[in-house]
Amino acid sequence: IKESKNKNRPYSAQDVFCNLQKQHGLGKTAVVKAMELLALEGKIKEKTYGKQKIYFADQAQFKDVNDADLKAMDCQISELIAEAQSLTQSCRQLDAELKELNSSLTTEEMMSEIQELKAECSEYRARLEKIKSATNHVTPEEKEKVYKERTVYVKEWKKRKRLASDMINAILEGYPKSKKEFLDEVGVETDEDCKVVVPSN
After folding, report:
1. For 193, which DSSP code?
2. CB 16 within 8 Å of CB 28
3. What gap in Å lies between CA 13 and CA 19, rounded to an integer?
4. CA angle centred on 57, ends 55 and 63, rounded to 5°
5. Paired strand residues for 52
6. Per-position pLDDT tens, the chain of length 201
7. Cβ(105)–Cβ(97) under 8 Å?
8. How many CB atoms lie within 10 A of CB 115?
9. 45-49 and 52-56 as β-strands: parallel, antiparallel, unpaired?
10. CA-to-CA separations, 95 to 16, 104, 138, in angstroms, rounded
11. Other CB atoms closer than 10 Å to residue 190's CB: what's the count?
12. Are 148 and 141 within 8 A, CB to CB?
């Protein structure tokens, strides 16, 4: 009865049974009889909806609520809803921050990684010093000389390939067999046979 008055909401016998069963272990039959008895004594009201009975506190014991009070309660409800939404948002932000912190490295892990990186840097510095101290470096002049020689050799390669191709085509004009058979017969190996390509420059 006290809970019904405090919350001023309807309850079915099943609702009351579930609440009391958890707290006191009462059986459903006892709860139904008790609710019916309270209704007969006028301590609570009873209404039947189809096969179900609903029990609620006698509304006559509550004072009337005017429009101003209703508006005030509506305002309070709106404020509480807004506050709840704000708290929910704050909780989500805190959860996100906590998740980020949990996924971050600990101080010990950071110190360990720093030591590993320092060791790696030292290794690279040692390799760099070794390269700098080497005596077999190619000078810019030597590099330029090699590139010039390469250009000459590539140019000569293209020239000789063109001359050979012209000679072979001239012979093939009066040769009764195919080009492949001719090349096999005279023992000529082409760039394609050796899987090489003339550089473009």
Report:
1. T
2. no
3. 10
4. 150
5. 49
6. 555 445 566 778 788 788 776 666 678 888 888 888 888 888 888 888 888 888 887 776 767 777 888 888 889 989 999 999 999 999 999 999 888 888 887 888 889 999 999 999 999 999 888 887 877 777 888 888 998 998 999 999 999 989 988 999 899 898 898 988 988 888 888 888 888 888 876
7. no
8. 10
9. antiparallel
10. 37, 14, 60
11. 14
12. no
Instruction: Determine the Cα–Cα distance for residues 76 and 169; give it in Å rounded to an integer.
Output: 102
Q: What are phi and psi of 49, to 5 degrees?
A: -120, 100
The Cα-based distances of 93 to 49, 66, 80, 104 in angstroms read 46, 41, 20, 17
Amino acid 29 reads T
- Per-residue CA distances from 33 to 22, 49, 56 (Å): 18, 18, 15
The residue type at 125 = R
Q: Going along the chain, which residue ranges are E strands?
A: 11-12, 45-49, 52-56
For residue 40, what pLDDT is reported? 85
Q: Report CA dihedral (112, 117, 119, 121) to the nearest 10 degrees.
A: -170
Residue 21 token pair:
């069963």
Q: For 27-36, b where at least 16 C-beta lie within 10 A, e where not — what string?
A: eeeebbeebe
28-40 and 13-24 helices cross at what angle (nearest 10)?
120
In single-letter form, the type of residue at position 101 comes to L
